[in-house]
């Protein structure tokens, strides 16, 4: 009997590595004869085939992106520049439950949600700065979350019509140390009381950016940086030769603000993805590669 492979019948995922294919539900799979697979695999063109990509997401938070890019044909080097570390800072003391609770990242959800009083979770309106953060909240038991449908960040949440804290109301912002203050400043200017619950710290992931010699001997096509702290720590970790190599690649980020910061740091013509999720980043890289063919 001829050997057969299971493959997904759609786009990029049709060429998934065998170890990833095994994880797919059977309803998503087709049985393909080995001979047909070999003929097909020689003709398929993956959107990122041959592209060399550096991913800088924090350790433990970049595996799915790495897999997504590899499945699209890219060679991926994951070098975290940012470490997210839970802290034990006490939650703010409030006389009444907050009117709103806003989470700034999936890690803020994972770290902060279990620490919030149940009464706060049940009575406050819930919001997230992006769809990925909203998904994390739902996974923890939230029933209804207001979030931008795509993209992310303070600007996107403030632009969402459903997110409308009123003057005199209290917003609890679950966040990490540092970070931007745009959301807080905008709400306070509208008469909203903003209280921060700082549940994790941001730290450099390492003293130096350890790039294998074999990688530096060939040009870098893309590097992905999704936060201001990640960019700051990347610049601090990279030595002169590594920094020169990095700037040969096209930096991909998730907001115009970060793109402007990258330009000021010496990166030419950054690409701004529609969001910080894996699909949006893959789409941004694929579109850039497609435009140069």
TrEMBL record:
GO terms for biological process: protoporphyrinogen IX biosynthetic process; uroporphyrinogen III biosynthetic process. Coiled coil: none annotated. One of its GO terms (molecular function) is uroporphyrinogen-III synthase activity. The keyword Lyase applies. The keyword Ribonucleoprotein does not apply. PANTHER family: UROPORPHYRINOGEN-III SYNTHASE, CHLOROPLASTIC. Catalyzes cyclization of the linear tetrapyrrole, hydroxymethylbilane, to the macrocyclic uroporphyrinogen III. Belongs to the uroporphyrinogen-III synthase family. This is Uroporphyrinogen-III synthase. The lineage of its organism: Bacteria, Pseudomonadati, Pseudomonadota, Gammaproteobacteria, Chromatiales.
